[in-house]
Structures are given as C-alpha cells and as structure tokens.
Design goal:
By secondary structure, this protein is mostly helical. The protein has 22 helices and two strands. Strand 1 and strand 2 form a beta hairpin. The chain is globular and about 65 Å long. Belongs to the TrkH potassium transport family.
Length: 494
C-alpha cells in the first residue's frame, strides 16, 4: 500500500477544496452579513491542512492501484466532511455544537439534504450559499472535478473515477482519456445548473435564490435557503421547473454525454431528430419514467379519494414536486409528508430506496439494479418451471454477464446489511424504533426527509445518532462497497 502517495494526493485534494470557502466569503462581502471572516479562517485552516499533508509526502509519486484509489476516495470524503464543518463551528449563527456541525457538513456534501437548523431565514447569506454550494460540489463528486482540472496529480485517474462514480458500470469510459470525460461531465453539470438557475429567475425567484436552488436541484440535494423549503415560493411555475430538472438530473449522465457528442458534431451526418434518441432508447430511463408516472397516478388517486385538492390542502404541482423529490432522493419539501393520507408516506419513503438512474447524482439502489433484480426474479420463476433451460438476462439486444448480476445481488445484500446495522445502533443511541427506521432510510438513501420526529429536521436526533447517520450518508453516497471494501482484511493484504 502506497501510504505516502495516498497522503500526498489527499493533501492536494484538500487544498483544492479549501478554495470553495472563498466563494461564501465573497458573498458575505457582497451582502455585508459579517460571515466573511469565518470563511477566510476556514480557508486558511483547510489549505494549511492540505498543504501540510502534501509537503510531508511531496516526493512520493508511486503509481496507484485500484486499492489505493478506493482508500483515497474514502479518506477524502471523510476528511472533507470534517473540514467542511469548520464554518458551522466558527459562526455564531447558527449556534451548532460539534456533532451537529459535522452532521450538517456531511449532509451537504453527500447531497442528503437533512438539516439540524430550525430557522434558515435568519442565517447569513454567506452560510446559506455555502450549504447549497456544498451539495453542488458533492453532486458530481469533488474528486471527478479534481481529475478534470488538476492533471498535475500524476496519478491514474481511472482508479479514483471507479471508486467515485455510481452504478454497476464503473469500468466504462466514455472517452479514452478519463480526464477528458470528467471535464465534459462537469461541463454538462454546469450547463444544467445555469439553465435551471435562469428558469427559476424567469419564474420569479430572486437571483440569489435561483442560483442556490439550482445548485440543490441539479445535485439532487434538497437544501433550501428558507425554512419552508421550496414551498416558500408557493408557485406552480417553480414547482414544474423543479420537477423537470429533477427528472433530467436523475438521468444517467452518460446519456447526457451522448447527446452532448451529437451537439458537438462528433457524429456528423446524423439526422437532427436523432439527437435525443439515446434517452428513449435507454431501458433504464424509460423504466424510471414509468415508475414515476405510476407513483404519481397512485398519489393523485389517493388525494382524490380524500378530497385533498378540493380542500386546498395541496396543489397538483406541489404534490408532483414532493413525490418526485423524495423518489429521486432529493428531499425538497412543499408540505409535511407525514400528514399525507393512507399509505402514501410509507410508499414514497420506501420508493426512495430505488432512487434515480445509475450514473446520476441520486442516491438509493439505482433504477438499473432494481430493473435487473426484477429480470432476475422473472428468470428464476421461469427456471422453476423449466429447470434445464438456459436463459440469459437481456436488456433489449444486450446480454448481461452473470458477473454483473452477481454483483448486483451482493450490492443489495450489503446495502440491506448496512441499513439494519445503522438502524439498530441509532435505536441504541436513544431514538424510537420508527423514528430511527425513518432517519436511517433518509440518510442511507441520501433523501433527507423522514417521518415522525425527523419529518421537519434532524435537530431532535441525539448527538451519538448523528454520527451514525453521517456514516450512513457516506455509505449511500459511495454506494456501500467503496466504504465497506476498506474494512475487509483482504483489502490490506499485499
């Protein structure tokens, strides 16, 4: 294990992340909210830590293997979560203790969107911007950004890319050079953010709210600058814009990449109407849209039975936003889901286990894995009737290898194991079983909204449980295996 090379790279990544503290400092200067000093101090501290790690190991430049890549990613997210809490600790408003600050930092970076802050409207603009910006950085992954803009790392970027990116196809490269792929992915990510921000601004948001909420939407994060969350704006236009961009952000970014290639003229001679064909040809995306439609119709039916629309308890746009926000693991809130009638609160929360598409910024198991589990289940039923039949699993014309199917079952088992362990520990920390159940789902799936005592925020969660939930957030963000693999004794054997 090349420990000195690992420390050197983590140091460079931490130094890069420290510059994220300067943007909120500029916002503090712009609005005169008094938070600038805390962010400058946080920048100096983080940069010093990163520089110290790099300087100590600056001469270690051994090539990385897959194991080092996984360890760098885990260490980086843990260190980043700890250092990202510095502004919350330094600022007097909000008055958070150490555990709450760590929880808020990890929640932002992992795009979970669970908060321990009660009154967001009283916070400095700089801190509100920082919370939103944390989500945006964590959405696509700070490490993928580093691969794109810091070529002097002198490492095999594919090892970090494999450990950081989501989905079962981590080996897939959209371009021969991984740095080029990372740059284009971040260009797409930035472009979607700008488009979403402009749409919000045209719909009536202030420039500050439009920008910061676009950070949360494209990252599928769920933080807001208002205590009433997205429901603060009470606008059908804003609700529908949010729904549209949530669906776009929940799509596999490899499809966005393919469309980008069409626009850039890489495949010349293609008819213009075929530019958006990759979306419709993708079985996972079609399955994702079908599931969202089915859940929406169920919600509309239940609301109709209970006369929710006639009583004015909720609008169609607000219900659609709340539903899609939770099922895509974003966590925006237009109303208290716990108060929704019948089976809806449990149904929607359980649907967050599925999440969005593989290769997106969403949490959960991912739609592709769930689709393959369904196909595998159907194959096993067929084998029960015809024991000697050989039937591969196919998506369209593509035959999937048994290795992928086995890996998905292993992932499902590991995901369920982490969920049960975290649930039991949070109960031991003093939470009620149902509250703990809801909080772990919200954290592991990176959805941020729970039921019961955590339906509004997580301020009532015991400090010890906050650490457990922060661990669950990182597990969900890194898709369990990346974190669990370093706990295996085999990982540390040469």
């Amino acid at each position: 294990m090349q420990f000195f090379s690992i420390i050197r790279i983590v140091g460079i990544l931490v130094m890069s992340f420290s510059f994220a503290m300067l943007l909120p400092a500029f916002v503090a200067l712009l609005y005169g909210d008094g938070g600038g000093r805390a962010f400058v101090e946080a920048f100096l501290l983080n940069f010093s830590v990163g520089a110290g790690l790099w300087w100590f190991c600056r001469h270690s430049r051994q090539p990385l293997r897959a194991r080092e890549g996984f360890l760098i990613v885990v260490l980086f997210w843990v260190v980043l979560g700890l250092l990202g809490a510095v502004p919350f600790i330094l600022l007097d408003n909000p008055d958070l203790n150490f555990s709450a600050s760590i929880f808020e930092s990890f929640s932002g970076l992992t795009t979970t969107g669970a908060s321990v802050i009660n009154d967001l409207d009283s916070l400095p603009k700089s801190l509100l911007f920082y919370r939103q910006f944390l989500q945006w950085l964590g959405g696509m992954g700070v490490i993928v950004l580093a691969i794109a803009i810091i070529p002097f790392l002198g490492i095999n970027g594919m090892q970090l890319y494999r450990a950081e990116m989501s989905g079962p196809f981590k080996e897939q490269k959209m371009r021969p050079r991984i740095a080029e792929t990372a740059k284009i992915l971040w260009l797409i990510y930035l472009s979607l953010t700008i488009l979403c921000s402009l749409a919000f601004w045209i719909a009536g948001m202030s420039g500050f709210d439009a920008l910061t909420h676009s950070f949360a939407v494209i990252a599928l994060g769920g933080f807001s600058t208002h205590s009433a969350n997205i429901g603060y704006f009470d606008s059908d236009a804003i609700n529908y814009i949010t729904v549209f961009f949530l669906l776009i952000a929940s799509c596999n970014f490899a499809l966005h990449f393919s469309v980008f290639e069409q626009f850039s003229g890489r495949y010349r001679g293609q008819p213009k109407y075929k530019i958006f064909k990759p979306y419709w040809q993708d079985y996972e995306f079609r399955f994702f849209l079908l599931l969202q439609l089915c859940l929406f119709l169920i919600c509309m039916g239940v609301f109709g039975i209970y006369n929710y629309f006639e009583s004015g308890n909720i609008s169609v746009s607000a219900a659609a936003l709340q539903l899609i926000s939770i099922t895509t693991t974003t966590g925006f809130s237009t109303s208290n889901v716990s108060l929704w009638p019948s089976l809806l609160p449990i149904l929607i929360l359980l649907a967050s286990f599925i999440g969005g598409c593989a290769g997106s910024t969403s949490g959960g198991l991912k739609m592709f894995r769930v689709l393959l589990l369904i196909l595998q289940g159907r194959r096993e039923i067929h084998r029960f009737i015809h024991p000697n039949v050989i039937q591969p699993i196919k998506l369209g014309k593509h035959i999937l290898s048994e290795r992928i199917v086995e890996g998905i079952w292993a992932f499902f088992a590991a995901y369920f194991f982490v969920f049960v362990v975290c649930w039991l520990i949070t109960i031991a920390c003093g939470m009620q079983p149902l509250d703990a159940f809801s909080a772990v789902i919200a954290s592991l799936n990176n959805v941020g909204i729970g039921l019961g005592s955590v339906s509004d925020n997580f301020a009532s969660v015991p400090d010890s449980a906050k650490w457990v939930l922060a661990f669950a957030m990182v597990c969900g963000r890194l898709e369990v295996f990346t974190l669990l693999v370093i706990l295996s004794p085999t990982f540390w054997k040469d």
